[in-house]
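Hi L., both proteins are below.
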Amino acid sequence: MTILGKSTYLGQPLTLLPPDTEPDIAAYIIKNQDMIPASDLMQSLLHRVVIGVDQITIHINVQKLSQVIERYLKVRMTCDAAIITLDVPFKIGKAKSGAIVIKPTTSKGDIFDLPPDQLKRLV
C-alpha cells in the first residue's frame, strides 16, 4: 500500500511528505514505507480531516510523521512546518441503498490509489 508515495491527482504530482524533504531521503522513505505499520503511520499522519461542501481538507502532522519515520526507518526528516494541508475536491453521489457517497472529482481514481470500496471505508 502506497501512502507516502507519489501519485497524480488532477494531473499534478502529489505526495504526503513535506515539500522541503530532501529528494534522496524522500526516495528512501517511499521505497521502504512498507516497514512502517499502517496503523502507526495513519495515527501519526492525520491531524484533522475537515469535510466541506465540495472539498476535503486533510491536515497532516509533519512532526509526528517524522518521529514515526525516524523510529522505523532510522532516517531523520527535517521539516519547517508543523502541519501541512491537502485540499481534495469531491462531489457527492448516492448509492443504490440511498447512502451518500463521496466521489473524487477525477475520473482516473483517487489520490490514495484505492478502489472505490476501500475509499468509502476510509472516510
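That was the first. Here is the second:
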Amino acid sequence: MIAVLGVDIGGTKIASGLVVDGVVTQVASSPTTLGLAGLTDQLNRIINSYPIVDRIGLSVPGKLVGPFASVIFPGSARNLEVKSGELDHVDWRSLIKDSINVTVKNDAVCQLIGGAQLLIQANKIPHFTPCQMGYIGPGTGLGGGIATSLNPPEFISDGHLYDMMLCRDPHDTFSPAGKWVMAENVVSGRAFKQLSGHGAHEATPDDVAIGLTMGRYIGQMIHRVQSGDWKKHDSSQNWTTADVLRAKSTDVWLLGGSLGTHHPMCRWLIDGIRQFGLSPTTRILRIPNGVEAALKGVAYLSLLP
C-alpha cells in the first residue's frame, strides 16, 4: 500500500491527512500563515508532524506552469500573499525541504476528482467511467474547473473560472455600480465577509439575500459555460476556442468550497442557482466534505503515472 500525505492549502486554512487506498485518516487543520516565509515554515512543520510517507501531494490555489506544473503563475495566488507579487514564479516544490516525491495540483481539480469519488460512494453519480463535469468552489476565493473525463482524468485548459466576467445581477444591491462584475469579486468568502461583516460559517438568516444573489451568479457562470458566450477579465488566461466549445456540454456541476459545502450557505446558493433557471438536464451536486474531497483528490492525482 502506498501512503500519500495530502496537504490542501487555502487562503484561510491548511488541511492535511494521510491517504491510503483512498481512505483519509489523521486529518488536521490550522489557520494559513500567509506570505512566502510563513507558508514555507508552516508546510514543513505540517509534513514533519506525520510519519514518513511514500509521496506528498499539495493541493494549491492558482494557475500552475513550468515543466512540472508546479510554478505559480504571476498574480494567481494573491490570497496567500503578504507582499503583492511575492509568490509570483515560485515553485511550490522548492518550499519543501525534501521535494523529490512532491506532486503539486490545482485545488479545483483536486476537489473535482475527490468530490466525484465521494459522490460515487454515495451513489449520487455513476461509477468512475468517462464523464464530463465541472466544479465551482467559492472558498476564500473562487475555484473552478472542468474535466472531460474522470478515468483517466483529463481537464479542459487550466480550468480557471474565477475571472469570468458576469452581467450584474438585477437584484445585486451590494456590488459597485457597473454592468459587469468579475466572478470572484461577487462569489467568494472574501466577498461574503465584505458584505456581511462576518465569515460564511457565521451566516444568519439576515444573509439569505447575499447567498441567493451569489447563487444566481453561479447559475450565470454555468449558463455562460454551456452557451460558450463568455470572456475573462485577464486576457493572458483566456481559454482556446476549442476548449470553450468542449466545455459547452458540461451538464453535471459539483458545488464545493467553504460556502458551497456548509449550511445554511450552501442551501441559499443552490436556491439561487435554481432561481437563475438553467437547462433541465443540468445537475448540481453538493460535495459532502470539502476537506476529504481535496485530500482524496490530490492523493489520487499524485499516484497517476
